[in-house]
Amino acid sequence: MSTPTTAKWGLRTLAFGYLGLLLLAPVGMIFYKTFEHGLGPPIEAMTSPDAVHAIWLTLLMVAVAVPLNTVFGVGCALLLVRHKWKGNAVLDGIINLPFAISPIVVGLSLFLLYGTTGWFGPTLSEWGIQVLFSTPGMILASVFVSLPFVVRETVPVLQEIGAEQEQAASTLGANAWQAFWRVTLPAIRWGVAYGVVLTTARVLGEFGAVTIVSGSISGETETLPLFVAKAFEQFNEEAAYAGAIVLALLALTTLLLMSVGGRKAKAQGGPIPITGDAAIPTSNQKEGS
Amino acid sequence: MGIAVEGARKRFGDFQALDDVSIDVPDGSLTALLGPSGSGKSTLLRAIAGLEELDSGQVAINGQDATETPAQKREVGFVFQHYAAFKHMTVFGNVAFGLKIRKWDKPQIEARVHELLQLVQLDGLAERYPDQLSGGQRQRMALARALAVEPQVLLLDEPFGALDAKVRKDLRTWLRRLHDEMHVTTIFVTHDQEEAMDVAEQLVVMNAGRVEQSGSADDLYDHPANEFVMSFVGEVNRLGEHFVRPHDMTVSLDRDEGAEEAMVQRIVALGFEIRVEFVLGDGTEVWAQLTRAELQKLELREGQIVYLRPGQVKSFSGDVPPPEGGGASTPRSPDGGEGAEVSAAA
């Protein structure tokens, strides 16, 4: 290794200083504040029925939205990359929509569609399905805002690996399904995994759209970010900080699971995970407001 | 039997990749598809494998029409230029792939894979990943993978194109020996005429989506059907309407009847072979291939005036031969008349 010059050290200091000030300091402060009086108060705050329900509901959002968007995302990426067609440009544009639209607007549009005067609202409520102010609406909002991540992460990896491995599989007798499971999916798995991590983070932290469609009813339609916001507004700082910590830990766990998986694959001599040129999740209210 | 393609046409947008191509590959033979890039040779190979759908025409493999058969069911072994190795699988996993798809028993798979790895001299590397192999090793692995399922035909798309010169030479000798042992009908695509002549028993020369000529290496070299074949298979000088091989040029220091005056422009020593470049009175540049001994005898030096006499010259009636009418792209026979041979007037 060559000795880093002053310029290199200068840049490094700048990078760490910037990150420290903007990211590490606020997150560190939350940790400090939460555990200021030991483990007791945050644990108590997080075991209240409302908090437990909020955690459970947040995990439910993840459990539904992430698999849905993963299956859709991989399928969509295959369609975009492997089956060239004129309509693909339009499809590509539509997929990016959730990146372009503010979550609040997403929430409002769902409100218009499923509200009592909306297009689908009256029909659905006749069938006894309540979308707004209940779980289905919140799932819709979560799926909407986190839709592009898997597609965006998978498309470049699919382009990178090319179609030849799949063609080789087909000449060896594999049908499309076998070629996908045995060749394509293992080859793109790091792109997909990265997309899943981003999707999870986005769903965990989603605030804007979910606020509007859920009505934020404590113990019923309150996810963890909503719980944190409400606690903060009600000067229940202990609960707010503790909730924020739980959110951060959930996101960290997802990241950790992926990198552990990556290291294991590397130890086996398999290909190294590809770090996609990812868009960063725009979860605005992740650490509480 | 073998492989037969009839009237194959394929268009990509504005580009006519295959323009009424018919070829006949005898059972058990080793045939080269030779041509410059864009000549349609890879498209033809991919069409035989079922990786490319023809706009029209038929493909028959071992007497069975395979035109509508998907790649998955054609039982062809295909080897790609860039190996198309399954990167997340070991060498063993790669070679075993087709057998696993066919649901062979585990002990059978193991025996078969090791037999093949021995054949391609990769025994002992079964647990490696493709990333840990050299280019030549990867290509041999790809070959073992293709051969594992006992394909009816073996198709190789510029198999040595991504390898360096030394490995390339070794591999092509090895491929020929392998073919002698296995006798599976094999087609390989190359743009390297030396490689084609070295390895293949039969050559099919393609250009601009058409077959220009097919036959043995000697046929093509000695009786080229047209200018394209003559200049693609071997080196050529053009003297007015005539074509002559550089090794058929006689260099003399004395004025000679029927010989042309020329000035030595450059002498390039390429090991045993010496390449001497001349410029004729009318400015035409030609070159002659001499041996070291010949050069020493003549004591040529740059700037010297000498007399050149072409030995065997050829001329072709049409310029670049367009096939007449629709179905005329069937391979011309070597003595089909287009290539008229003229002996130099002495």
> What amount of the residues of chain A lies in strands?
under 5%
Radius of gyration of chain A in whole Å, from Cα? 22 Å
- How helix-rich are the residues of chain A, as a percent range? over 70%
Count of separate DSSP helical elements of chain B: 9
Sheet bearing the most strands of chain A, described? none
Strand/helix succession of chain A: HHHHHHHHHHHHHH
Number of DSSP-assigned strands of chain A = 0
End-to-end Cα distance of chain A: 44 Å
Q: Provide the residue-averaged pLDDT of chain A.
A: 86
Main sheet strand line-up of chain B? 6-7-8-3-9-10
Let me know the number of strands of chain B. 19
Shape field of chain B: elongated
Q: Notable features of this structure?
A:
heterodimer; A: 289 residues; mainly alpha; 73% helix; disordered C terminus; B: 346 residues; alpha+beta; five-stranded antiparallel beta sheet; 9 helices; 27% helix; 33% strand; elongated
Q: What do you see in this structure?
A:
The complex is a heterodimer of chains A (about 290) and B (about 350). Chain A is globular. Chain A is about 75% helix and about 0% strand. Chain A has 14 helices and no strands. Residues about 270-289 of chain A have low confidence and may be disordered. Chain A is an all-alpha fold and about 290 residues long. In chain A, helix 3 (about 50-80) runs parallel beside helix 9 (about 150-160), helix 6 (about 105-115) packs parallel to helix 12 and helix 11 (about 175-205) packs antiparallel against helix 14 (about 235-265). Chain B is an alpha+beta fold. In chain B, helix 2 packs parallel to helix 4 and helix 3 (about 105-120) packs across helix 4. Residues about 320-345 of chain B have low confidence and may be disordered.
Map the helices and strands.
The complex is a heterodimer of chains A (289) and B (346).
Chain A: H1 6-34, H2 40-46, H3 49-82, H4 88-95, H5 97-100, H6 103-114, H7 121-126, H8 135-146, H9 148-161, H10 164-171, H11 176-205, H12 208-214, H13 224-233, H14 237-267
Helix pairs in contact in A: 1-14, 2-14, 3-8, 3-9, 3-11, 3-13, 6-8, 6-12, 8-11, 8-12, 9-11, 10-11, 11-14, 13-14
Chain B: E1 3-12, E2 15-25, E3 30-34, H1 41-49, E4 56-61, E5 64-65, E6 76-79, H2 91-101, H3 106-119, H4 135-148, E7 153-157, H5 165-182, E8 185-190, H6 193-199, E9 202-207, E10 210-215, H7 217-222, H8 227-232, E11 237-239, E12 242-244, E13 249-252, E14 260-270, E15 273-280, E16 285-291, H9 292-298, E17 305-310, E18 312-316, E19 339-343
Parallel strand pairs in B: 3-8, 3-9, 6-7, 7-8
Antiparallel strand pairs in B: 1-2, 1-4, 4-5, 9-10, 11-12, 12-18, 13-17, 14-15, 14-17, 15-16, 18-19
Helix pairs in contact in B: 2-3, 2-4, 3-4
